[in-house]
Specification:
Length: about 325
């Protein structure tokens, strides 16, 4: 390490992040963990790894199952909105979040009664057949945590390449940004592909939704589909209508169009736990696929029909 890096590690336990939980100890993130029980190198390694698994009384069929509640992400962010509007010292507005990151795999069963969704519960988050499917079962806080993780991972990669440039923060889109992107440049369209119909001139469905009563599969999909299914809109974005609804960063209010600023509007009320979701999903009727339709879900809820996508501020392109 350079003299600067040595000083920071000895005094703060991290390279510039004074909120680091390491307390002066540096972790080697390049070291691969051994997960195969039969390949553990010694009993000391077993002792440590044993804490990551469920206890015997919670296991069955002779399998040790990972305790997913131990998988947490610790990150910090600056509440610039509060800092700009209130007096105080900077540290008062640094928020530290610890979020359980593993999706709720039980949503496929909890969301529906009298429905055989056990295969989705067992395989959706595990089997490679679903590797290109949209993530579900994550609440709003988990989606926000992923944005923080993705930003840190990207900037750490750039730093490893001796690149002094950092990327803007990944984040959830505001409701206005989401609708702008969904329209794909068609300002007065009903759907991302234009409209006014949900089928093409050849009778093919243009999205994954519930076209008719009790027949989810008539559009070619019973549940979710691969993320790049159907045709993209004119901005090249797939499934801005249907497949899964998407979290936005905006708090839901019936008066949003009246109280929001006309310049890049975004209603963000911290004490309002209803967050806007957009786009409609595989289980919704066509009304929810319309680019102007608004809906919400509580931020601590995880559903089998809600996912998310990340955005970044665009700062221009260096053409030199």
């Amino acid at each position: 390490m350079s003299p600067y890096e040595k000083y920071m590690m000895n005094n703060y336990g991290s390279l510039g992040d004074v909120n680091s939980p390491l307390q002066g100890r540096s972790l080697n993130w390049e070291e691969d963990l051994i997960w195969n029980l039969n390949e553990f190198p010694d009993e000391y390694y077993v002792e440590v790894m044993d804490t990551m698994f469920l206890q015997f009384e919670d296991s069955f069929d002779g399998k040790r199952i990972l305790d997913t509640k131990k998988l947490k992400f610790n990150y910090s962010w600056l509440d610039t909105e509060a800092a700009a509007r209130n007096k105080g010292v900077r540290k008062d507005y640094i928020k530290n979040e610890i979020v359980e990151v593993y999706p709720d795999t039980t949503v496929w069963i909890k969301d529906f009664n009298y429905s055989y969704n056990d295969p989705m519960h067992q395989d959706y988050f595990y089997h490679q057949a679903y590797a290109d499917y949209p993530v579900v079962g994550v609440n709003w806080q988990q989606a926000k945590a992923f944005c923080g993780w993705r930003t840190k991972k990207k900037n750490s990669y750039l730093k490893s390449k001796k690149n002094s440039t950092t990327v803007p923060y990944f984040r959830l889109a505001t409701e206005a940004e989401w609708e702008y992107a969904a329209r794909g440049g068609l300002n007065f369209s009903k759907y991302p592909w234009g409209g006014p119909y949900t089928t093409s001139d050849r009778g093919c469905f243009l999205a994954n939704f519930k076209p008719s009563r009790g027949d989810y599969a008539v559009d070619g999909a019973l549940y979710t589909m691969e993320a790049k299914s159907y045709n993209p809109n004119d901005y090249g974005l797939y499934n801005m209508a249907g497949n899964v609804s998407e979290w936005t960063n905006t708090a839901y209010s019936e008066a949003s169009y009246y109280i929001g600023s006309t310049m890049n509007p975004n209603v963000e009320i911290n004490k309002n736990y209803r967050k806007v979701i957009r786009g409609g999903s595989w289980k919704d009727v066509a009304y929810y696929l319309e680019v102007s339709t608004r809906d919400y879900e509580y931020s601590d809820s995880a559903r089998s029909y809600i996912g998310f996508r990340t955005v970044q501020d665009f700062l221009g392109t260096n053409l030199n």
